[in-house]
Design a protein that fits this description.
mainly alpha, 8 helices, 10% strand, 2 domains
Length: 305
């Protein structure tokens, strides 16, 4: 866990520093060159700074040990921060949308941006590509939805910058400054789209869902590998941070002693832990063979897969 927190903090500081330098450069270049699209791209990079700050702050929270108030620990702060990040990104996109729309509606003539705008965007593409690869790779390695969301956001920024670059080239070639404003409008819409996508993805963990249903096959295989175990059912898998919380009902011989039943329960738990990485905890409920007690419709059985 300490290595994971260290990796998150390091990635956050790299994101903060890189985006701060990039945002300052692009906003300044946008004003100097007279390109609204470059300014819009710079504001998008500025919103990424806040995203990295949120990630850094959250790293401190998830490093806390479980408490009386939060007996399962603080792992879900990762998903909550991801949802907060989606609002930040959406707000930045909405502001750009309003500004760009007003520019188009006003019908005022604007000057054609200078070549400095193109230089700023080319630099942006290179830096954002490096940051995106680093954050996405780190996020995947430590299974952090926050870093993965930041990586996706910066990866999308690369495509946004490329669209801005295309708009600038057309603007300079055809001498139509309105193309630059339209490019800024499209950038804002794309930013909002990414924010909505991140928002809904974070709902899965917060609602105790599971984005990778194939893990259920691994759970059933691990249970079936233990002799004497029958009919695994009501299997439930949810995430707590980057780890899995697994609960399952199994049937064993009802004539076994309590000690033996307890041993078999531990065998199932050990089998699951050896088959699946990043286990938070495993809870096993024992039932006698052929138990006919009507259970609530919770969890999954083999036939549900």
């Amino acid at each position: 866990m300490s290595e994971r927190i260290t990796a998150i903090k390091k990635a956050s500081w790299i994101g903060i520093t890189g985006n701060a330098l990039l945002a300052s450069f692009k906003i300044a270049a946008g004003f100097i060159s007279g390109s609204l699209a470059v300014i819009a791209d710079g504001i998008d990079s500025a919103s990424d700074i806040l995203g990295s700050v949120i990630t850094l702050f959250t790293a401190r929270i998830i490093s806390k040990p479980p408490s009386k108030k939060f007996p399962y620990g603080y792992g879900k702060a990762d998903a909550i921060a991801t949802k907060g990040l989606s609002f930040v990104i959406f707000f930045a996109g909405a502001q750009l949308l309003i500004v760009s729309a007003k520019k188009i509606i006003s019908g005022v003539e604007y000057a054609v941006p200078s070549n400095m705008a193109i230089i700023a965007i080319v630099i942006s593409v290179i830096v954002k590509l490096i940051l995106s690869c680093y954050l996405f790779k780190t996020g995947k390695a430590i299974e952090s939805p926050m870093l993965i969301a930041n990586g996706k956001n910066m990866r999308n920024d690369v495509f946004i910058s490329l669209s801005v670059l295309t708009g600038l080239i057309f603007t300079l070639v055809f001498q139509w400054p309105v193309i630059d404003i339209i490019a800024a409008l499209l950038v804002s819409i794309w930013i909002m789209k990414v924010a909505v996508q991140i928002f809904f993805e974070s709902n899965i963990e917060l609602m105790d869902g599971n984005s990778d249903p194939t893990i259920y096959n691994d759970v059933f295989d691990a249970i079936d590998a233990v002799p004497g175990i029958k009919n695994p059912h009501r299997v439930r898998v949810r995430r707590i941070g980057h780890k899995f919380m697994i609960a399952a009902d199994i049937e064993i011989d009802g004539n076994l002693s309590l000690k033996k039943a307890h041993e078999m329960s531990h065998m199932v738990e050990d089998s699951i832990k050896s088959s699946i990485d990043n286990i938070f905890d495993v809870v096993i409920h024992l039932e006698p063979y052929g138990d006919k007690i009507v259970e609530k419709d919770l969890g999954l059985s083999r036939e549900h897969l």
